[in-house]
Amino acid sequence: MTPQDASRRAEEICRLAPVIPVLVVSDPATARPLAEALVAGGLTALEVTLRTPAALEVIAEMAKVEGGTVGAGTLLTPEDVTKAVEAGAKFGVCPGATDRLMSAAEDADLPMLPGTATATEAMVLLERGYTVQKFFPAEASGGAPALKAIGAPLPQIRFCPTGGVNLKNAPDYLGLANTLCVGGSWVAPGDLVAAGDWEGITRLAREAAALPVS
Ligand SMILES: O=C(O)C(=O)C[C@H](O)[C@H](O)COP(=O)(O)O
């Protein structure tokens, strides 16, 4: 898959909903009800971070949920790419980007949302062909004003800001011309997942799905 095709697919995924839930799931038994609750609320693109031993099993379970598009986050190595694809991930997300990682994703036909936080990082990926990127860590890197400033000289890059984004500050990003959607963990808080409060999660998802995107 070329970087251009990967970016086209990443853009389609980012346009599915205003928010991509970033999920850190430890118990595979919660995977399906959690994904169903988020999809029911209108958040259909889901990112499962490879930060728990259960993550690959969680991806495989969530991939069975109708209406959902499940991706793998925190991809750091070519081996992560292989495992994510085998588990059924339809897209990949990484906090930054390396040549080795991006080549592995291109070889595996896995559309990637690679992370950048500076103009130089964004330009390096743009040079390779990636016009859709994740702005990470968004809030710590200057938030919406920083992303707006990056957009002035680099309007051809569209972003999914992630990291410190919540219901309150999401509109600041979603109002920017260079923001397709945001990523965030706030729609699946650990206490609600642990309590099996799927209705509560659907409510949070619905609220997030209703955020206007300009
Ligand atoms: O590891 C990755 O690939 C990630 O996507 C990292 C996440 O962007 C942040 O962990 C988001 O976390 P919150 O600030 O809690 O919304």
TrEMBL record:
What the entry lists under PROSITE patterns is as follows: ALDOLASE_KDPG_KHG_1
Q: Which reaction equations make up its catalytic activity?
A: 2-dehydro-3-deoxy-6-phospho-D-gluconate = D-glyceraldehyde 3-phosphate + pyruvate
Annotated EC: 4.1.2.14
Q: From which domain of life does this come? A: Bacteria
Q: Does the keyword Lipid metabolism apply?
A: no
Q: In which pathway does it act?
A: Carbohydrate acid metabolism; 2-dehydro-3-deoxy-D-gluconate degradation; D-glyceraldehyde 3-phosphate and pyruvate from 2-dehydro-3-deoxy-D-gluconate: step 2/2
Q: What is this protein called?
A: 2-dehydro-3-deoxy-phosphogluconate aldolase
Listed InterPro entries: Aldlse_KDPG_KHG, Aldolase_TIM, KDPG/KHG_AS_1
Molecular function as annotated in GO: 2-dehydro-3-deoxy-phosphogluconate aldolase activity
Record note on quaternary structure = Homotrimer.
Can you tell me which residues the record assigns to a coiled coil? none
- Species name for this entry? Palleronia aestuarii
